[in-house]
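Q: Structure tokens for this one, please.
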Amino acid sequence: MLITIASGKGGTGKTTVAVNLALTLKELLPVVLLDCDVEEPNVHLFLQPVVNESEKVMTTVPKIDGNKCDGCGKCSEFCAFNAIAIVKGKPITFPELCHSCRGCTLVCPTGAITETPRQIGLVEKGTWSVIKTAKGTLKIGSPLAPMVVDAVRNTAPLHHGDQAVIIDASPGTSCAVVAAAKDTDFCLLVTEPTPFGLNDLTLAVELAKKLGLPHGVVINRAGLGDHSVYDYCHEADIPILMEIPFDTKYAACYARGGRLVEEFPDLSDRFLKLWDVIQHHAKRHQREEPKT
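A: Here is the predicted structure, written as tokens:
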């Protein structure tokens, strides 16, 4: 099973669900926990894994030989991301905007453009207890989060054997979330019962539908706000798979980097039931998916 844990907004408890689900499952089957929130990874704050391998995430950006460039501007015209500009017949490059499509290299008639490597992030693999982990960190100033997310996902043998691969995605509905959630077996959406939670949950649901992913909702801080999230899920026929009650003891545990299922063992049963129902919905979706 390969599942993504996502949310429409930040601060809903997405990482809390990911970490505690992994802890609950670790005695039952192999668990891989991938922190794909590469702009602000925080799984390591709760598990403190031992890092045994790290790898730079590299891309390429154009390097222009001024002696060969005739200022024709074809590279600038081709670039959809404005990573090259021609000013007074001279090229100016903006490496932070480059998406490494290599198009400028191909269209340059004088062969003035070559590629040079550029680091955009770092992936660290490690272990905590029997849980395998991987964390991606986007380099400050780089806009290419999806490439770092892909690098994190590539560290795990996806869809292989009897294991649980849990992906902690970025909040929101950006390209980085799409990169984390694509081709997964299930998308678990974590929200809170507030007007803000409802607004951003609707966006996350639309994303899951666009990607063709079976999905369900976990309501964190249940009992804190209003009933609008419940009404929406009922009207949209979206299953609510689990509720985590609003409790200051849970908040205090989180604030000091504690692990809920260790301090409150009664929650383990809830996470076990959550895993069972996720598998049920994912398998039903596979059966109902039209054959191509």
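A few notes: The chain has eleven helices and eleven strands. The radius of gyration is 22 Å.
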